[in-house]
Design brief:
- This protein is α/β, with parallel strands linked by helices.
- It has two domains: 170 residues, Rossmann fold (3-Layer(aba) Sandwich); 196 residues, Up-down Bundle (Dehydroquinate synthase-like, alpha domain).
- It has 14 helices and eight strands.
- A six-stranded parallel beta sheet has the order 1-8-5-4-2-3, with helices on both faces.
- The radius of gyration is 20 Å and the shape is globular.
- 54% of the residues are buried.
- It binds nicotinamide-adenine-dinucleotide (NAD) and zinc ion.
- Nicotinamide-adenine-dinucleotide binds next to helix 2, helix 5, strand 6, helix 6 and helix 10.
């Protein structure tokens, strides 16, 4: 058995670590960056902090911020136009998964122009490494700064394309929790639940192994113990812990894959623009109960990582205890618990299931799954 791990060339962690950005750019003899972010973030002082860092060190940049959460093919094409027009030689992403994923697609196309239609990236084997990309996450989070994936919505097919390509990994990731400190409660809560989903799905996915287990168990322990304080109380130490833990989860799942929580969340994102973390948080306890049947021992380990008392429980009790703990956490974080509550029409569930069964994350699910199983889980989560 051969296992592969792909990680950033360099990563920095710590408050203020954004100051390392200019020296990493200059060390690569690069001069002009496309600074990719979104308009919501531009209204905060976060992007300003990074711009000031670049200006202080005389690194040139041009700003592109026309990005929708759950970014679209058009967002990528618009950014590409700016990158070409200004002849940039690197890309800096400041934002959540939406900004970083858009930046990844742009950076890949800059060196692989035959994929400039964007849609072909879903199945392409690109020839060249992306233009050097420097990623500074502001959510905690998708871990897009360390993964070899990016997710772009193809609106013409109402589909979130999960593009997997080792060429897209950012050269440098900078996890500066000061950039995460100002997240509104709902964004900290839902993006944190996305990270918990990565750790849990990555831990029980088919390809998981020794090294990714180490990442995932640590990540889920840190997130479970710190997320409430980070999101609800804005506790600085807890924000640091979740910020690092979401990266640790990314070191794992990027290299082994996920499961059907993500498949099902992608359909919701494509059809209803449901925020990714919200979709995951809502579905996770239901999918855990479904998957627990085939790997109850892994659930005991996850319960132990959370710090729950798992001794003396039957397999079914162990699975339910972990799923209940996840649901209770989401409730404490004020996250909606049913698809009905978030306005999903019931008659759309079969369409969502049809798409989810064909999602790139489905083959990694630990339990074999049919379209009917997925529909049943959507129905269970409906009300
Ligand atoms: N590449 C990967 O490996 C990967 C993994 C999981 C999810 N994703 C994708 O990432 C996207 C979701 O990214 P996300 O959950 O990070 O959210 P996001 O990037 O869509 O941002 C959500 C909102 O939060 C705001 N925001 C972000 N940081 C903020 C901050 N510090 N302060 C105030 N507001 C802030 C943004 O302006 C935006 O309005 C989805 O498209 C999802 O499919 C990618
Ligand atoms: Zn995710």
């Amino acid at each position: 058995m051969i296992n592969r791990i792909i990680l950033n060339e360099t990563s920095y962690f710590g408050r203020g670590s954004r100051e390392k950005l200019p020296e990493e750019i200059k060390a690569r003899n690069l001069h002009k960056a496309l600074l990719v972010t979104d308009n919501g973030l531009l209204k905060t002082d976060i992007v300003e902090l990074v711009m000031r860092t670049l200006e202080k060190a005389s690194v040139g940049y041009v700003l592109f911020s026309d990005i929708h959460p759950n970014p679209s093919v058009k967002n990528v094409q618009d950014g590409l136009k700016v990158a070409k027009e200004y002849n940039v030689d690197c890309v800096v992403a400041v934002g959540g998964g939406s900004s970083i994923d858009t930046a990844k697609a742009i950076a890949v196309i800059m060196t692989n122009p035959e994929n400039e239609d964007v849609v072909s990236l879903e199945t392409a084997t690109t020839k060249n490494k992306a233009m050097p990309l420097f990623a500074l996450p502001t959510t905690a989070g998708t871990a897009a700064e360390v993964t070899i994936n990016y997710v772009i919505t193809d609106e013409s097919r109402t589909k979130k394309m999960v593009c997997v390509d080792p060429h897209d990994i950012p050269a440098v990731a900078i996890i500066d929790p000061e950039l995460m400190q100002g997240m509104p409660q709902n964004i900290a809560a839902t993006t944190g639940m996305d990270a918990l989903t990565h750790a849990m799905e990555g831990y029980i996915t088919k390809a998981a192994w020794l090294m990714t287990d180490m990442f995932h168990l640590n990540a889920m322990s840190l997130i479970y113990k710190n997320l409430e304080k980070a999101a609800n109380d804005k506790d600085a130490n807890a924000i640091d812990q979740v910020g690092y833990a979401q990266y640790i989860a990314g070191m794992g799942f990027s290299n082994v894959g996920l499961g059907i929580v993500h498949s099902m969340a992608h359909s919701l994102g494509a059809y209803f623009d449901t925020p990714h973390g919200l979709a995951n948080a809502l579905l996770l306890p239901h999918v855990l109960r479904f998957n627990g049947k085939v790997c109850p021992d892994l659930f005991r380990n996850m319960g132990n990582a959370f710090g729950l008392e798992m001794n003396g429980l039957s397999d079914e009790e162990a699975v339910n205890k972990v799923a209940d703990a996840v649901k209770d956490l989401a409730i404490k974080l004020h996250i909606p618990q049913t698809l009905k509550e978030i306005g999903v029409p019931k008659e759309m569930l079969p369409t969502l299931a049809e798409q989810a069964i064909n999602d790139a994350c489905t083959p990694g699910n630990p339990r074999e799954v049919t379209k009917e199983d997925i529909l049943a889980i959507y129905q269970e989560a409906y009300e």
